[in-house]
Design a protein that fits this description.
The chain is of the alpha/beta class and 295 residues long. The protein has 10 helices and 12 strands. It has an 8-stranded mixed β-sheet with strand order 6-7-8-3-9-10-12-11, with helices on both faces. Strands 2-1-4-5 form a 4-stranded antiparallel β-sheet, with helices on one face. Helix 4 packs across helix 6. The structure holds adenosine-5'-diphosphate and magnesium ion. It comes from Glycomyces sambucus.
Length: 295
């Protein structure tokens, strides 16, 4: 359904944009309907840049992004508007998606203005209440409120409800759990589970391996902008092959182990210099389990 083919992104950086920083290197991924694909990796590995390119918030330097086989990059305003009916994003900080001087439910109104101006008021209200209930929010307790009167979890769920009003096919969720309280984290995670059961594809971006393991069918591990390993969550988590993946998994704190009896901290892999290189080729080590060549 959604496909990235050999996608690269470089940003201009330094004085007057004199240098280039390669943030994403030759990434190919795809998401099927009803599937959650996690993109994991440490900070700076290029995860958010991938999400932004999918959401057309930043340009693609090289490569293609396809939705149902159609190239969606670099097209006009009308095509972009049609695209946003099918692909939407939710981000880490829900507060940043709201204007504090307006009531939070204004986010629904802007969808109506852009896409459903012909829908009658009463019918629209019913639809909004419906999607709110779909994300397990009580319309009475969120409608008419200002953002500061609502919790991060409520605001996050309203953004998901907004996406559902559009009847989207793909949701990009970038670190959406990180800023929530422990008590609402599991609700939002379970909500994503329900969405995938309705056939939505979710690009779940996270630095948190345990979240990726919990929610996704497949996982892509990134480092310095390139994919180092990908495959079904079961295979990658039980049988990681790339030293970087192993390192990452070994560094997840485990509940049954105390810090005092943990092993020595794994040695840091070499530094950032490989950003300018072509990424190592991936080989299939097991069905659907791909690993980048490594020493
Ligand atoms: N707008 C930008 N301009 C220049 N460099 C950027 C920009 N956005 C991100 N980067 C750089 O690109 C790399 C990848 O960033 P990002 O995609 O945000 O990683 P992640 O989400 O995995 O933490 C980082 O080195 C970051 O500093
Ligand atoms: Mg990020």
């Amino acid at each position: 359904m959604l496909e990235l083919k050999h996608v690269w992104k470089s940003y201009r950086v330094g004085a007057l944009g004199s240098k280039r920083l390669t943030a994403v290197r030759d990434v190919s991924i795809d998401i099927a309907p009803g599937e959650v694909l996690s993109v994991v990796g440490e900070s700076g590995s290029g995860k958010t840049t991938i999400g932004k390119m999918v959401l057309q918030l930043t340009s693609v330097t090289k490569g293609q992004i396809l939705l149902d086989g159609e190239d969606v990059t670099a097209r006009g305003h009308a095509a972009r508007k049609a695209y946003y009916r099918r692909v939407q994003g939710v981000f880490q900080d829900p507060f940043s998606s709201y204007n504090p001087i307006f009531k939070a439910d204004r986010i629904f109104e802007t969808v109506r203005e852009s896409y459903f101006a012909d829908v009658k008021r009463a019918e629209w209200t019913a639809r909004v209440e419906d999607v709110l209930q779909g994300v397990r929010l009580d319309p009475g307790s969120v409608l008419g409120k200002y953002p500061h009167q609502l919790s991060g979890g409520q605001l996050q769920r309203m953004l998901i409800a907004r996406a559902l009003l559009l009847d989207i096919k793909v949701l990009v969720a970038d670190e959406i759990i990180s800023m929530l309280d422990a008590s609402t984290r599991i609700d939002v995670l379970n909500l994503l589970g329900e969405l995938k059961e309705r056939g939505l594809g979710v690009l779940f971006i996270t630095h948190d391996l345990s979240l990726a393991n919990y929610i996704s069918e497949r996982v892509v591990i990134m480092r310095h902008g390139a994919v180092v390993e990908s495959g079904t969550t079961g295979k990658v988590f039980t049988d990681p092959r790339h030293p970087y993946s192993r390192n990452l998994l070994a560094s997840v704190p485990q509940l049954h182990r105390k810090w005092s009896d943990s092993e020595a901290v794994p040695e840091k892999l070499e530094a950032d210099g490989d950003r300018d290189l072509d990424p190592a080729p991936l080989t299939e080590v097991d069905e659907g389990h791909w690993v980048a060549a490594h020493p």
